[in-house]
Each structure stands twice: as C-alpha cells, then as structure tokens.
Amino acid sequence: FVGPFDLSLPGIMAQVATPLAQAGVPIFTLATYNTDYLLVFVLLAAAGFAADTPMVAERRKQDQAVKAEVVAEMRKRAEKGDVHEQFVLGDIYRNGRLVPKDSAEAVKWYRLAAEQGYFGAQSMLGVMYANGEGVPKDLVQAQVWYNIAGRISEEFAKKYKAEVFEKMTSEQKAEAMKLASELFAKLPKGK
C-alpha cells in the first residue's frame, strides 16, 4: 500500500492495518470525528539491528517527530473549538499515548469539551475529580459532572453516581445537586 489513503472509505483502515498486524508490525490507530491517523512504528532492534546504533536512535527521533506532529494538528483543531479533538486530547494526555502522561492537561481538554456539552468529557471530568487525577480530589465536583453526564445517559448515571454518592455527606449531596442544576442550565445540549 502507498498513501495517502482515503480513510473515509469503508474498511480502508482494516485493509491497511490487517497486513501490518499479521506481519507483526506495531501500529497505533486513532480515529476522531473527522480525522483518522495510522502510525507505523518500525522496530529496528527486532529486525536484527542493535538497539543502541545511530540508525535506531534516528528512527526513534523520527517516531517522536511524527507523534508530535499528530498531536500538534489535533491541538490546532481543538483550540478552534473542535469538541471531538478536545476530548481525544484529554484521553491522550490522561493515558500517556503519543505524549507523556499529564493529568492536569487532560482535565483542561476534558473541561473544554464538557463545557460544550460533550457527554464523554463530562463523565471523564467526574472520574478525574473522583480520583483526584489532575485536580484535587473533590467528591462534590465529581458528583456535579456525573449528574450532568447522567442526564444524557441513565446507564452511566446508575454506575458511577451511586459510588460517589455513598461517600458524600448530606451537605455535599445538596451542594452537588445545586451546582449541577446551575451548570446544566448553562451548558448546550449533549453531544
């Protein structure tokens, strides 16, 4: 196969990725609402090259440059308000894929998407507050975001809201409900 590929065609990603996977070539795919990426990582050491050779070092630098370019492109779209790219950047930073793990940066991108009504980002903000990832642990804020996300998905609400709710005082529960109602009134409809 020679690119570029029209990734809007059904099955094109599978047609490209399957032979690579069958050959044992590591790949990383990332699909957002309007963009797909397929990164191929060449493991020269596995092909018989010593891990400390200049050739392997150069390949690592090239891989890092490609990762940085992908993230930079996503960041441009996210900064222009693309809610899907904001959410994916949150995931990338939370999980340390393509970039070093940075929970505070993940919260930033999740919050931008959540404030545009994106359900996945709203639920992830709840997770981040509940676990104290990138923000101080705050059960009230966790419950606020879980309540907002729960208005879009009852299934989600049943699973996560109850866990946090059990750990909260009566005052915290009342505060969370009040804040969630106020915030929900300001947010656009869910995406």
Written account of the structure:
- The chain is built from eight helices and two strands; from the N terminus they run H-E-E-H-H-H-H-H-H-H.
- A two-stranded antiparallel ribbon has the order 1-2.
- Helix 4 (103-114) runs antiparallel to helix 5, helix 5 (119-131) packs antiparallel against helix 6 (139-150) and helix 6 packs across helix 8.
- The mean pLDDT is 79.
- A hairpin with a 4-residue loop joins strand 1 and strand 2.
- The chain is mostly helical and 191 residues long.
So how many helices?
A: 8
> Helical content, roughly?
55-70%
Classify the secondary structure makeup into a structural class: mainly alpha
Tell me about the largest β-sheet. 2 strands, antiparallel
Question: Could you say which overall geometry the principal axes of the C-alpha atoms support?
Answer: elongated
Report low-confidence residues grouped into runs of 5 or more: none
- Multimeric status of the protein: single chain
Q: End-to-end span in angstroms?
A: 36 Å
Strand residue content: 5-15%
- The beta-strand count equals 2
Radius of gyration computed on alpha carbons: 20 Å
**Widest β-sheet, arrangement of strands:** 1-2
Mean pLDDT: 79
> How do the helices and strands follow one another from N- to C-terminus?
HEEHHHHHHH
List the helices and strands and how they pair.
Blueprint: H1 12-22, E1 27-31, E2 36-40, H2 54-79, H3 83-95, H4 103-114, H5 119-131, H6 139-150, H7 154-165, H8 170-186
Helix pairs in contact: 2-3, 3-4, 4-5, 5-6, 6-7, 6-8
